[in-house]
Amino acid sequence: MGGFIGWAVLVIFWRSMWNENKMIDLKTKKIIVTGGNGFLGKRVVKFLLKRGVSSENIFVPEHKDYDLEKEEEIKKMFIDFPANIVIHLAATVGGIGYNLDNPGSLFYNNALMGIQLMEQARLHNIEKFVVLGTVCAYPKNALIPFKEEDFWNGYPAEVTAPYGFAKKMLLVQSQAYRKQYGFNSIFLIPVNLYGPGDNFDPQSSHVVAALIKKIIDAKNEDNDEEAVWGSGTASREFLYIDDCAKAIVLATERYDGNGPVNLGSGKETTIKELANQIKEIVEFKGNLVWDVSKPDGQPRRCLDVSMAEREFDFKAETSLEEGLNKTIRWYLENK
Ligand SMILES: NC(=O)c1ccc[n+]([C@@H]2O[C@H](COP(=O)([O-])OP(=O)(O)OC[C@H]3O[C@@H](n4cnc5c(N)ncnc54)[C@H](OP(=O)(O)O)[C@@H]3O)[C@@H](O)[C@H]2O)c1
Prior knowledge:
- By secondary structure, the protein is of the alpha/beta class.
- The chain has helices at about 1-20, 40-50, 70-80, 95-100, 105-125, 160-180, 205-220, 240-255, 270-280, 305-310, 320-335; strands at about 30-35, 60, 85-90, 130, 185-190, 190-195, 225-230, 235, 240, 260-265, 270, 285-290.
- It has one domain (about 1-195, about 240-265, about 300-315): 3-Layer(aba) Sandwich (Rossmann fold), CATH 3.40.50.720.
- It has 11 helices and 12 strands.
- Strand 1 (about 30-35), helix 2 and strand 2 (about 60) form a beta-alpha-beta unit.
- NADP nicotinamide-adenine-dinucleotide phosphate (NAP) binds near residues 63 and 132.
């Protein structure tokens, strides 16, 4: 028994030494954060600064100056800011309604942008390329919790498949480039994100922001009831925005593997539970009425998050209750 414990301690020690050794010192690197002015991008930049990266070493290409769907503008970006690392967050995104109305542009914009950007990054000798995938790329009926090895075991939920596949193609590209060119690119799979600074526009918002706005509006209008999309029985997993930003920076620093890695809180919540929690926080006294004529999207979502902890020491810290309170407070102060 004693021998076994000693051996286990030694393995943990070796592993931590190995992880220390392969860690990138981000302070010595020039980093491009595409989409760095977006909801997640702003937090990633903030976290890089907190980690000691100087602001001169971080470049955020503005969409108006560098349209990353255009190869010439990507080339110009790499000339204007010769970088070591690219964290690729730029994307066209939206909630379920936006996905229903825009499957073509979601597929085309995201695939085109990512594929060209990774190719130019390779040609410009980028040392590390970080891709943000999406939980929407998991098979519709993957077993709960979703494990990375099940990522290819089926077709995603139809409504978000075009967006999901556009991102999933970047995993194929990433692995192919590693094999053929030795290009170091990693692929992360975050769940639904939420937090202060989220997009509250009903045309394109995701579920948490959409429900917060809807329920606060219903309260302000003194409604007895408020209709909500779907049956409410579908489940999702939510990751607070600062936790996700931290995970991305840790992975950039410490993970160089070929396989995708889930980023989540590991907690499954039904849409009905989420809506009721928001209703309680904002003190809406009316009833929520579930409109089953509207789609639920993927039936269940919950990730196995052990690989992120194992590979780069990431564990989400913010509970849904704490995150919702902060998000609602931000919305009320900024709407
Ligand atoms: N939000 C979520 O729940 C969630 C969940 C999983 C994964 N993700 C991934 O996380 C990343 C960030 O998402 P987000 O929620 O932060 O989105 P966001 O707030 O919409 O930010 C996206 C950013 O990309 C920029 N962008 C879009 N098209 C561009 C183009 N052609 N050229 C240059 N810049 C362009 C946008 O600039 P403009 O605003 O000026 O157009 C914006 O700054 C995305 O890759 C998304 O797929 C998000």
